[in-house]
Amino acid sequence: MRVSRTIQGLGYAAPTALFVTVFFLLPLLLVGQMSLSDWPLLAGDRGTNAPENYTDVTASTLFWPAVRFTLLYTALVTVVLLGLALLLALLVQESRPGAGFYRTVYFLPGALGLASASLLFWGLYSPTTGPLSRLPQHLGLADDPVSFLGTPTSALLSTVFLVVWKFAGFYMLILLVGLQRIPHEVYEAARMDGASRAQTFRSITLPLLRPSLALSLLLCVTGSLLAFDQFFVLTKGGPDNSTVTVVQLIYREAFQRMDLGTAAALSIVVLGALLLLNALQFRGLRHADES
Amino acid sequence: MLTRALGRTPHHVLAGGLAVVFLFPLLWNAWASVSAQPGTAQESGHGLGNYRTLLEYDAGLWRYLLNSTVVSALTVALTVSVSLLGGYAFARFTFPGKNLLFLLTLAILMVPYATLLIPLYVLLGRLHLQNSLIGLSLVLAMFQLPFATFMMRISFEAVPRELEESALVDGCGTAGALRRVLLPAVRPGLITVGLFAFLAAWNDFIAPLILISDSAKAPLPLAVATLRQQSMGAVDYGATEAGVVVLAVPCLLVFLLLQRHYVRGFMSGALKG
Asked: Fewer beta carbons below 10 Å: N end or C end of chain B?
């Protein structure tokens, strides 16, 4: 007897269902329970203590500075990264000689891991062996070697530069796909009508590129709000805890303060904020589409 | 000719200047890893001193490379096989709960990495998979599933139904049709999925940081980051630079070889997303 197609379909989907249940749904329920329990790292579950973990989160002196810093970092990275990615995409979109070469070169840092890239820049920014810290001095622009990670502002800007270097090619690819879907005839028509290059860009390229820009924006904002590796490796949250992000705070609560309950509560807060933000972004984009 | 060449100059100056900025850190790091620096194993001249430091550090470079290779291979194998079967199911079958399961798989993308890693740390402990490369691979494969399942679903949907039906008429079961007829047709999609899974698994930092506490089981990124932190005060920049080279070379090679398949991942996302 032949097994029915329904049963076969269930069979093929079973591994996916198993993965989603055990490694996604179960942890999601567990993190909810943990957030309501007294749960030290080593002792394990010691019973309900709600809502203590949640009040602990906002009571932490690092919480609001971390939220503020994460938002500032996100805004900065998003503007610089998407701006540069758009420039790169425009530079390599046409079949000019060398376009393929430039495309590969711009993307190359994207093949590295974020942790590897952070380790690389940690050396590059080093005041002792890095080639950059003495450059302004040699050029006569500064009196002392530049300290790239020494002050809160320079640490933030240095990290933004690293992240832009690592991800610009990635967003360039997304925007390039969008650019290539704009029909040639539209540009032809604009040229016939005597539109300048700036006009063409403003009234044709940008509006027609909106789906790709929206996707880039969503990915970039989400990724930046959850930043961890770059700050953990490059600045270690310093100087003076000035570059601690929200996800770093989760790590600190769990594995340095050894309080999984509070870490879980903070994880739930981050999840809630992210879902809310994504819902708002979707609504905003749909609203913009209708107008 | 001359005016046209001049007209192109600003473009090449800008594009070329940017190319230098993008290449410089990679080239500098490779060069610095074999150059003389005070406080490293390479005090004078050029040579592989820093790589020797890496070979002898703690459990040794070969051990960390092996850990990373095992995790990457397992993650790729799990991601490719689960998403192959799942993609087939979602594209060609109807069964109760199909849409719900597909949405739940995509929902993994909506949940922050860290939100899941805290409970996974506890959960893997209960499954006796804490501190295990298998446990780590299972988690990394789960994070790959949204993209992989989506990619494989559209790959199967792009194959003409007649191809599969003729195989079924010839007496193949669905498993036979999948193996003989569909597998070759969706191979490009599988390569893309495997490539993304490899790059993610090889490079991941936060998952092993949380899930692996035994330093002999650390994958390479974690090992290089701790190598740098352990030498208190005197920091070994040279060994770190050598570590970055060892981390980067496989990724750069794989990317350059399979660039076409990588770009397809973006095309599919942009078309359907």
From this structure: N
Give the whole-angstrom CA distance, residue A267 versus residue A249. 10
The Cα B149–Cα A20 span in angstroms is: 12
Average pLDDT over every residue of B203-218: 94
What residue spans of A112-183 are helical by DSSP H? 114-124, 135-138, 152-180
Instruction: Let me know how long chain A is.
Output: 291
DSSP for B88-125?
HHHHH---TTHHHHHHHHHHGGGS-HHHHHHHHHHHHH
CA distance B15 to A86: 13
pTM, two decimal places: 0.92
Interface check B105 vs A, CB under 8 A: yes
Chain A residue closest to B28 (CA)?
A124
Q: Which helix (H) or strand (E) holds A201?
A: none
Its sign, for the CA torsion B138, B142, B148, B150, is: positive
A121-155 residue pLDDT tens: 999 998 888 888 878 777 877 777 788 898 999 99
What would the mean pLDDT of B78-90 be, rounded to a whole number?
97
What SS3 class is residue B13? helix
- Give the span between the Cα atoms of B216 and B132, in whole angstroms: 11
Sign of the CA dihedral B153, B158, B161, B166?
negative
ipTM for the predicted complex comes to 0.90
CA distance A159 to A165: 10
B202 shares contact with chain A (CB less than 8 Å): yes
State which fold the B49-272 domain adopts. Answer: MetI-like fold (1.10.3720)
For residue A259, what are the β-bridge partners?
Answer: A40
Q: Where are the domains of chain B?
A: 49-272
* Sheet strands (E) in chain B: none
- In terms of DSSP H, where are the helices of A202-259? 206-208, 210-225, 229-230, 246-255
Give which of A31, A92, A12, A27 is closest to A267, Cα–Cα. A31
- Chain B residues in contact with A277 (beta carbon < 8 A): none
Structure tokens at B244: 């970055």
Per the CB < 8 A criterion, the answer to whether A164 and A117 are in contact is: no
Is B23 touching A (CB cutoff 8 A)? yes
Domains of chain A as residue ranges with CATH:
51-290 (1.10.3720.10)
Query: DSSP 3-state assignment of A140?
Result: coil
| pLDDT tens figures, B149-191 | 999 999 999 999 988 888 888 888 889 899 988 999 999 999 9
User: Could you tell me if B266 lies within 8 Å of chain A, comparing CB atoms?
Assistant: yes
The rounded distance, in Å, linking the Cα atoms of A242 and A137 is 27
User: Do A85 and A166 form a contact (C-beta atoms < 8 A)?
Assistant: no
